[in-house]
Amino acid sequence: MRFTSDQRLDDGVLERRFTLGEIPGILWTPGSASAPAPLILLGHPGGLHRMYPRLVARARHSAAEGFAAATIELPWSGDRPRSAAAEEARADLRRALEAGEPVDDGIVDRLVLPLVDKAVPEWRAALDALLSLPGIGGPVGYAGGVISIGVRLAVVEPRISAAVLFAGSFVPRALFEEARQITIPLQVLLQWDDEGNDRQMALDLFDAFGSTEKTLHANMGGHIGVPQFEGDEGNRFFARHLR
Amino acid sequence: MRFTSDQRLDDGVLERRFTLGEIPGILWTPGSASAPAPLILLGHPGGLHRMYPRLVARARHSAAEGFAAATIELPWSGDRPRSAAAEEARADLRRALEAGEPVDDGIVDRLVLPLVDKAVPEWRAALDALLSLPGIGGPVGYAGGVISIGVRLAVVEPRISAAVLFAGSFVPRALFEEARQITIPLQVLLQWDDEGNDRQMALDLFDAFGSTEKTLHANMGGHIGVPQFEGDEGNRFFARHLR
């Protein structure tokens, strides 16, 4: 892990950009911390530059509660090399949604499974590097989408103790089986009329999670309409489980 | 409204029992309040004596946020005269649930519609009396079950500005139409495996509410397993909407 730049934001949060091999990432740490800060991994749909305004807002919100936050670029997104297969699957999904057609399992599998397979080891490598830094301590939470990445991470990565998962994208059937193996506390966010997701599928996934403590927060509106107060709810959820 | 007793609880909350005509009720007000306190009506399934421990816990929780709280006995419950028709409908419902049979719309209508028709005017009369007391000011929230009473109240009573509804009982089909007319902010609590309710019906009801701000909080467990942290979530919801 190599830091490439740092700046102090006006609320005292330290923002450091880094690269991990060829993967760019960003780490935010609270301005003042007496003990090592729990770390929240911020999931997103890919494209750090495009997502930056929302990511930095989430990170500052977390930092106000004493949490560090970090994110890395997804495979085939942002400045990273593209995948022809992923672009094709994404185009097929977009076509199906725009035509109002049911989304074929095959498309979802082609789009999501290779992404999960490639991204999850990268997040775990980032976790290794981040947890070796001074001022960052366990436990660790995962927050956001891609929900399938969060599901796989929650299954394979024992350092993740709690997750706020955003049910805002299609999930391959194969990952429902993995969902049943999850036992950590979960808070699941669902936008009731998410134009890029299927409500019943999201409810079925919530039902499938093996966790005994899981809460679904369903709010009105489309994909990008998650209410501001859910940021506070996420902080309180992590405060209950990461301290 | 006639006060019949009062006591100061150890956290300073003033608990006053009253009767409104023949209807018993309880009012809790915060120990210290500089301005008139917003009022939260505490819904419950009937039986003030049996429900008292949970009601007083909820009222103290609300009082800690500066809210007054009040409740009245339901028709045909507690010390009030019984209804043979209601008892019969309740027995029919219990039999169907114990036999694992689908719950017939007719049973639900017989059980709930007369209750709503009789209870809602009583809650409104209580509201008239409560809002005329010094130290109690609008706006007003409704919190709890019977959800069908909350639905009807939210439709007909303009003084109710926000509601936390507990989806823990069957709702007559006729009330789905009323649900569509509701426009106030709602937070709906659903126990995912509520043994006395139907999950899909509750999700359909949530979908039906006309409010643009509505949030569903679904948690694991049965009817009486609502997690403690939902008390805080209810307080924060009312703090957003009643201040």
From TrEMBL, chains A, B:
<dbReference type="InterPro" id="IPR029058">
    <property type="entry name" value="AB_hydrolase_fold"/>
</dbReference>
<dbReference type="GO" id="GO:0016787">
    <property type="term" value="F:hydrolase activity"/>
</dbReference>
<protein>
    <submittedName>
        <fullName>Alpha/beta hydrolase</fullName>
    </submittedName>
</protein>
<keyword id="KW-0378">Hydrolase</keyword>
